[in-house]
Specification:
single chain, 436 residues, alpha+beta, Neuraminidase, 2 domains, five-stranded antiparallel sheet, four-stranded antiparallel sheet, 4 helices, 15% helix
Length: 436
């Protein structure tokens, strides 16, 4: 009874505040007041465990009326438990068809309900931005953008988008390393779990950018020009750190940064057909091969690591996406290709202290459910994995996302069914992440 009286007394005070103040507020001031009110009520609900008195009485006392915008804002603030799969339809790469363009839209899917909503439509803001990789910052996201027209005037950049207001601002530009034109297409984009800095693939190199100062960082040798991880520096041969010949076009697509700062990088070009572990201090010169490189699995062709045979022959795999599964610890690599047995996910054991990848085993293979994968992400809350595929199925479906459960020991994946399929949202998925 004592708690009930306290709660009622508190409600009267809040009701008086509403009566005098709330109806005078507009725009973001009204939103801030709503947020504060909700925060206070949550505290009171925990203290007095009386939801009805603390939440309903203030509005009964003041006859407060909320418009649709107010209710929508309150709903987004109150329902912090909602988790979404954010999907960017932008520039993507599939070995069968090369670089392709999506619909310049970021869609988010509610993981509880499966309902989709357009988060941001770049076609509607008059810009030339086409989303590549994305990084979740909590209240906002960073998007690595390529100009969709590849013009000589519209440069590549990193932009930020506020999740609530949808305000879009330039976060980072560099005309030297992110120039206009078709060169240096931005692809993979990650925030390091080690130091919080940003890593951005520009096809032939991976740049490292200080998150706070927004300055490009040099590799261990103090060199800026060739990127933090350089896949095609002059003099580098096919057996160098990243296994890339300078004479060939390099396509460093998706990659991951481990907890120690090492990079596991996929080379999606059919000329390279490799993925490798790169040291945390960076890779730049040919001399790195005998010095700064890790001793194992540097530039080793994936076929040399005994990728398991699928069907009658070894698959002509091309690595196109990579994650490290948080539960099993396995590194999962999604391979893509034109042959049916070239499309699979392979699980590797990985020791981060040494950078050694070993014991490959097919985690999933079914060309009807996985064909020309372009992006892969894990829901760390459940251990489930979402894989986006570009290619045509036998049914004629193009652009889809399937959900998989993952064995916590072996890393074997089990198909949980089609999660999303849309001619707009899932066409040419360049990146995905899971967040609020």
């Amino acid at each position: 009874m004592k708690n009930r009286q306290k709660s009622k007394h508190y409600s009267l005070i809040v009701g008086e505040f509403f009566k005098k103040s709330f109806d005078k507020l507009i725009g973001f001031d009204r939103l801030r007041a709503t947020f504060l009110m909700n925060k206070i009520l949550r505290i009171e609900m925990k203290k007095h465990k009386n939801f009805f008195l603390t939440l309903i009485i203030p509005c009964l006392l003041t006859s407060c009326v909320f418009g649709e915008k107010d209710l929508a804002a309150i709903s987004k603030i109150v329902d912090k438990s909602s988790t979404y799969l954010y999907v960017a339809s932008g520039i993507c790469y599939s070995p069968a068809v090369g670089a392709q363009s999506g619909n310049r839209i970021i869609t988010r899917y509610n993981l509880k309900t499966g309902l989709a909503e357009t988060f941001y439509d770049f076609n509607a803001d008059g810009s030339y931005d086409q989303p590549g990789g994305m990084v979740d910052l909590g209240d906002s996201i960073l998007v690595a953008s390529n100009p969709f027209d590849n013009s000589t005037t519209n440069i590549k950049q990193i932009i930020s988008i506020n999740k609530t207001s949808k305000d879009k601002n330039v976060f980072y530009q560099d005309a030297t390393y992110l120039p206009a034109g078709a060169a240096n297409t931005v692809r993979g984009f990650i925030r390091s779990p080690l130091d919080g800095n940003l890593y951005l693939s520009t096809s032939a190199t991976i740049q490292k950018i200080d998150y706070l100062s927004k300055f490009k960082l040099p590799n261990y040798s103090g060199i800026f020009a060739n990127g933090f991880f350089n896949g095609a520096a002059a003099g580098m041969g096919a057996t160098t750190c990243l296994g890339v010949s300078a004479a060939n076009t390099t396509l460093m697509n998706n990659f991951l940064i481990t907890s120690s700062g090492k990079a596991i990088i996929t080379h999606s070009s059919s000329l390279q057909n490799k993925f490798a572990v790169a040291p945390s201090l960076g890779v730049n010169l040919a001399t790195d091969l005998g010095g700064n490189c890790l001793s194992s699995f540097q530039g080793v062709s994936i076929n040399a690591l005994a990728v398991p045979t699928i069907g009658a022959a070894a698959p002509a795999n091309i690595p196109n996406a990579v994650i490290q599964h948080s539960v099993s610890g396995k590194v999962l690599v999604a391979f893509s290709g034109t042959a049916s047995n070239s499309n699979s996910v392979v699980a590797y054991n990985y020791v981060d202290s040494t950078g050694v990848l070993s014991n490959p085993a097919v985690s999933y293979f079914n060309v009807g459910n996985l064909f020309q994968p372009t992006s892969m992400i894990e829901d760390s809350a459940t251990g489930d994995v979402y894989v986006a595929s570009y290619g045509q199925l036998a049914s004629g479906a193009a652009g889809f996302i399937r959900k998989f459960s993952v064995d916590p020991v072996t890393g074997a994946m089990t198909d949980s069914g089609m999660f999303a399929q849309s001619p707009i949202a899932t066409k040419c998925v360049s990146s995905m992440f899971i967040g609020q």
